[in-house]
Amino acid sequence: MYKTEAGSIVVDAANLDVKATLECGQLFRFEKIDEVYTVKSGAHKAKIYTVGNYVTIETASVDYFVNFFNLDRDVNRTKRELSRFPELCSALDSCGALRILRQPLFETVISFIISANNNIPRIKNIINRLCSLFDDVFPTPEQIADLSVRQLDAIGCGYRSQYIYDSARICAETDLLNRVCAAKTPDAGKLLMTLPGVGQKVADCVMLFALGRLDVFPVDTWILRTLRQGMETEVQLRNRLMTRYGDYAGYAQQYLYYYSAILREKS
DNA sequence: TTCCAGGGATATA
DNA sequence: TATATCCATGGA
């Protein structure tokens, strides 16, 4: 499925759809220049390009990105499992091996606090400016707690500045994030939602994109518009989909979300 | 120029 | 518990 060398990972393209994986909205720290993606996560960096049937991930952090892309998971088996749900077929066929990433926990918390009522280009810009304050490395809770709310305002966080600052302080001063890691999924969500700026949707994104809790189904505005039945509430929709897709709910959600993004682009 | 964005907090009934 | 309103900003 993949092999590692010093400075690079080579993956079968059938096992990693780079475009879908990076552009499906789970990650904000990437850019694409002439078919080459530059990805940053934590303090790590990689250049990624697809040639023929192979994807090359050039990085000094080989072990980090093997885990980041969860390369030991057989995503095509996941797609086969999901293909028994007829309503997912067009979404599954719209891309190759879209993989759910394993991103750093605190970085994902702050990134999705920033994502609230915001658009992806601006989310990316804000996160880039935040990291640029720290030599292009995503800051620790302590580093953000040492900033001022005004400094967060200055990089365009808007009304989220106070949430980011307060959440960073809590993460710096308590063991909340360790408790989140140790907790089972529903309790982990409740713990995350004690952070200001974190509601159900942000908590679900954090659990899915950082902790690999594949049984959650984040319900955002697009999912709500696309999938709600009748007068179904957001909570009812989330429960229905989590029950239907079980341990594959997160993957089902990502394929549906990415497919809806493709359709939106075309219109 | 206007609209709106991978929502959440708060007030009100 | 359920619904309405406000929130800063800038990309499109």
Structure notes:
This protein folds into 3 domains: 2-72, 2-Layer Sandwich (TATA-Binding Protein), CATH 3.30.310.40; 105-209, Hypothetical protein, domain 2 (Endonuclease III, domain 1, Orthogonal Bundle), CATH 1.10.340; 221-266, Endonuclease Iii, domain 2 (Orthogonal Bundle). The chain is 51% helix and 12% strand. It has helices spanning 18-23, 62-68, 75-82, 89-93, 105-114, 120-132, 141-145, 149-154, 161-173, 176-182, 185-192, 200-209, 221-227, 234-245, 249-266, and strands spanning 2-5, 8-12, 30-33, 36-41, 44-51, 54-58. The protein is globular and about 50 Å long. The two termini are 36 Å apart. It binds a DNA duplex (13 and 12 nucleotides) through residues 25-26, 112-113, 115-123, 125-126, 153, 156-161, 163, 196-202, 205, 218-223, 233, 257, 261.
- Oligomeric state of the chains in view: single chain
Count of domains: 3
- Strand sequence of the main sheet, in spatial order? 1-2-6-5-4-3
Q: Class of the largest domain in CATH?
A: Mainly Alpha
Q: Find the count of extended strands (DSSP E, 2+ residues).
A: 6
Shape: globular
Q: How many H/I helical runs?
A: 15
Provide the helix percentage.
Answer: 40-55%
Output the structural class.
Answer: alpha+beta
Look at the structure and give the mean pLDDT: 97
- Beta-strand proportion: 5-15%
Radius of gyration: 18 Å
Low-confidence stretches: none
